[in-house]
Amino acid sequence: MLTMVGKRLLAAVPSLIGVIIVTFLLTRALPGDPAAYFAGPAATKEAIEQIRVQLGLDKPLYVQFARYVADLGRGNLGTSLTTGQPVAEELKTRLPASAELTLLGLIVSIAIAVPLGIVAATRPNSIVDHCCRVISTAGVSLPVFFTGLILVYAFYYLLGWAPAPLGRLDVFFSPPPQVTGFYLIDSLIAGNGELFVAALKQLILPALTLGIFSLAPIARMTRASMLAALASDFVRTARASGLTPFTIVVTYAFRNAMLPVITTLGMVFSFLLGANVLVEKVFAWPGIGSFAVEALIASDFAPLQGFVLTMAVMYVGLNLLIDILYGVIDPRVRIES
Amino acid sequence: MTNIAVVGEGTPPRDSGIFAVLRHARYILAENGITAFAFGLFLLIVVAALLGPHMVPYDPLASDTAAALKPPSLAHWGGTDQLGRDVFSRVVVATRLDFFIALASVALVFVMGGLAGVAAGFFGGWTDRVVSRIADTIMAFPLFVLAMGIVAALGNTVQNIVLATAIVNFPLYARIARTESNVLREAGFVHAARLCGNGELRILLGQVLPNIMPIMVVQMSLTMGYAILNAAGLSFIGLGVRPPTAEWGIMVAEGAAFMVSGEWWIAFFPGVALMIAVFCFNLLGDGLRDIVDPRRRT
Amino acid sequence: MKRREFLKGVTAVTAGNVLPAAPAVWSPAKAQSRQETLLIVSESGPNNVDIHGVGTNVPGYEVSWNCYDRLISHEMKTLPNGVQYYERDKFKMELADDMNVGDMSVTFKLKKNATFQDGTPVTAKDVKWSLDRAVTVGGFPTFQMGAGSLTKPEQFVVLDDHTMRIDFLRKDRLTLPDLAVVVPCVLNSELVKKHATDKDPWGLEYTKQNTAGSGAYRVVSWNAGNEVVFERHDKWVSGPMPKIKRVIWRIVPSAGNRRALLERGDADVSYDLPSKDFVELKNIGKLTIVSTPYSNGIQYIGMNVKQPPFDSLKVRQAVAYAIPYQKIMDAALFGLAKPLFGAPPGTPTEVAWPQPHGYSTDLGKAKKLLAEAGYADGFETTLSFDLGFAGVNEPICVLTQESLAQIGIKCTINKIPGATWRTELNKKVLPLYTNVFSGWLDYPEYFFIWCYHGKNSIFNTMSYQSKEMDELIDAAVAAAAVADKPAYEKSVKAFVDLAFADMPRIPLYQPYVNVAMQKNVSGYQYWFHRRLDYRAMAKG
């Protein structure tokens, strides 16, 4: 197991290096001039040059890159121009915000998609099957920001059921003391039930938006692997032995069909983390996605580089976790590798 | 003497090549109403893309501020937007641009990713390592942010949006092509072609590539839907096509701001058109998969 | 079996304790604190709470205005529509108790009981340190101080603990008003000096995150990009005690959401909604909408006069006749602006700025002029705008593009992101663009110095050079310094006429500052910086 982990980490290193280099070049290729931005609207050419020297932007690219890597080694991810805060601090607060939202969205998605997939698999080629396919495909056919805006319009503006899209908490609540950064968990740890409910209420609409968008791959994967599982020998035996349909589907088939579904979940999670940029913009969510978009529009290098690096590391970590999980669930994988 | 039934006597003649595919396709369509529906829709989209600009009642770019923000009526089927332009005309004319974006992205990524992947799977060794590393590096980025970064760095023109979509989808195509050609590398006909004296490149392009086409076409159909959604997302951030171009994504993004004040039609009609198109491409991909290789159905 | 039941039991007990019994919609405690808090929502927030900081953005000015005091401020007058507007020529004492204007200097006596938010008393030493800082840190603050001839630390003299003298470099009408703008704020020098280092002698790193002033409010929490929370400084003496105890400023990027929040009563104030929303909200009648014209501000179409084809006067005039002014007013602004076009011929020029020019939309005249200039077949060019204000700029450009196409000028629209806009504009290569400029000091010559003078400041985006114009502007400044009214008025009228004759920039309209407030919110004041002043606001 450990050798597998070690080998994977080693194999990920070239990708990470590639990511760092590409991001660095990409941010330098952005049209904005941070020195001019920093110097303010009334700066003269001399003032801008002064700031440029101060920021170290007058040095040739490879020198800047060397400085960047040296800073990385010390854990210094630079400072953001738009917010004026160190990037590492921003990421520390914003990453849990995005992760909490994405996880909840994934849970919502699983809650809808997995039963849908199972039902479709138990009645292949029927009306129900086609309906499930249409529903899940429809969810992924709308741009995610549009879905979000429609939900806000319908449930907040027209019906008043959902709270105002003001971010993670209503103005009158202060965040719980930070343990994990996940407000749901931290409020429970602090024993504050009102805060838990408040945080949950703010999470519902954006999680629903994300969930609708990720229905399709999960439903399809569940259906496909359930079909394979239901056609297998051991299920045939279970049927022949006279077990109830519920036991067959849930206890026997589903447990064995879970594996590919988990891989899909991992892929969907990392896709969502990068894709919830738009959802965060609609719901004023203080996550890394909105952070990255603001940085991009403002040609703010440091947050962009920090964001991409964090995501790349998380992606590697996530894939590794899934592979380990795979090994835990299915011993055959462990033995084979 | 035992009666051995000889094939060809008393059995109907088998179709070959393209006719076999078409007969199989007709079978799939007949069995699966939804796929037939998707095909029909696809034809409708193509017709709208080709003939749209000639058939619409109003010039999609002509503003008429006196008639701004009017709800749908007989004169304006889709209502008018904030500058008085006819929404219905813009939606129909936008079909061409969005279809073009989808098609161009897919063509580009097929050429880039498909060829790279096939070469990687076929030749192995360093080609494989390099292509895999590039694919892994791209995959490590949050894909939408990478697309945003590319368009921001290069400028927001249609060409750059197409390029960004192609780059972002490169790893997927490279991976699929690589897996397929890896399997085909050992196929009998490849060995046979080699024995006949065909060069490696000729085998790659003439034997392997055509055989992976079916799987690629399925993926391409799905990517077409993704390309349109991607363009819409970029427009929402402000990195999409330039005004006053009519494109579904930018119309939805601009119209979204008007929903709260009640002018729902500005975002609704392009949104519905977008959804129908992406929906159609996704279902089309499913249908094509059934035609090509029913075992891979999900 | 036993373990499962045990776990189930524990979960039930914990859930019972942690979830509230029957949550009321508004608990009494919440209702009361809601009444004492003002909730403001806007699209973007500050990136630095110190106006002297490097790269501080415009929202940062609002924080500075409310958290720091300045020596003097302006009195308020009431406009015919009931809005409180600052009086340009009447000063009010803020941190100073008394002001004595001499011939080449002004002496201030400070309020003896003024304290900083940490309790230390305010002395003239702090004032000198703060003013020195303003003229030394560089960037925008120093630039703004220089606009009023305040450039050298030697000008600021401490006479005793509560008396301060400021010497003039030259007679300049703008010196006193410049002391009332946002920049010359008074900081707690001892506190900031404690956090200064060799590399950062003015303590900019500390003041970036912390307010160290004597103003009516202080920042108690700042979550960048998210919200700023202010609390009242209960020992504030520079004005009447503000009624609002707590101000929360929340960043909500989506305009649609901001409007929804206002309409449902979940937010108290917002001021950067699209014009259309303001017009509709006014008609719906649930909120108070206040619209006031920008002081000394104009949205214009600028042309680069150094390069063909816009170096030709006839081409510029042709463009001025081809702009669809009324369409822009209707579609881009929904009527919420003061038109600066179409003055009837024979209207006398006034001693005021902005004022309307005589051009209106006349495509026939435009085509004729273009042909006379030698471009009968038109030409191609790009039309650029700042994406940061796309809500207004995009319709302006789309309509202009359409209209210019009718006289043969084909424009490609060039969207430039907000962060890059200044850089691109300052390069002075954009041939045709739309931009907005306004000056804090509401005097015509102030606007003209920055926008039309041959000194070619960065705000002279057209690279306009005219000796005649320079002489007229200099004459106006000189006349104002010695209060020579007839000479001043003559020069102002002359330079306005020249600006309209040469047309290097085509004024479109004077924008409005629009604010939407709940009906129970009062005390809005219009200031030259156009940001909110919390000190006069009240709820209920």
Helix content of chain C: 25-40%
Radius of gyration of chain C: 26 Å
Record field, number of beta strands of chain C: 23
What oligomeric state is this? heterotrimer
| Computed Rg of chain B | 24 Å
Structural class of chain B: mainly alpha
- Strand-residue proportion of chain B: under 5%
Can you summarize the main beta sheet of chain B? none
Termini gap of chain C:
61 Å
* Shape, principal axes of CA atoms of chain B: globular
Structural class of chain C: alpha+beta
Q: Biggest sheet of chain C: strands, sense, closure?
A: 12 strands, mixed
> What is the number of helices of chain C?
18
Q: Give the DSSP E fraction of chain C (strand runs of 2 or more residues).
A: 15-25%
Shape of chain C: globular
Let me know the number of strands of chain B.
Answer: 0
- Helix tally of chain B equals 10
Helix percent of chain B reads: over 70%
Distance between the termini of chain B: 49 Å
Mean residue pLDDT of chain C: 86
Could you give a short description of this structure?
The complex is a heterotrimer of chains A (337), B (298) and C (540). Chain B is mainly α and 298 residues long. Chain B has helices at residues 17-31, 33-55, 87-123, 125-140, 143-154, 158-184, 188-195, 200-237, 248-259, 265-292.
What do you see in this structure?
The complex is a heterotrimer of chains A (337), B (298) and C (540). With 337 residues, chain A is mainly α. Chain A contains 16 helices and no strands. The model of chain A has no long low-confidence stretch (mean pLDDT 81). With 298 residues, chain B is mostly helical. Chain B is built from ten helices and no strands. Chain B has helices at residues 17-31, 33-55, 87-123, 125-140, 143-154, 158-184, 188-195, 200-237, 248-259, 265-292. The model of chain B has no long low-confidence stretch (mean pLDDT 82). By secondary structure, chain C is of the alpha+beta class. Chain C has 18 helices and 23 strands. In chain C, strands 1, 10, 11, 12, 13, 14, 15, 16, 17, 18, 19 and 20 form a twelve-stranded mixed sheet that branches. In chain C, strands 5-6-8-7 form a four-stranded antiparallel sheet, covered by helices on one side. The longest helix of chain C has 18 residues, at 485-502. The radius of gyration of chain C is 26 Å and the shape is globular. Classes of the chains: A mainly alpha (337), B mainly alpha (298), C alpha+beta (540). Chains in contact: A-B, A-C, B-C. At the A-C interface, helix 2, helix 3, helix 7, helix 9 and helix 14 of A face helix 2, strand 1, helix 5, strand 12 and helix 9 of C.
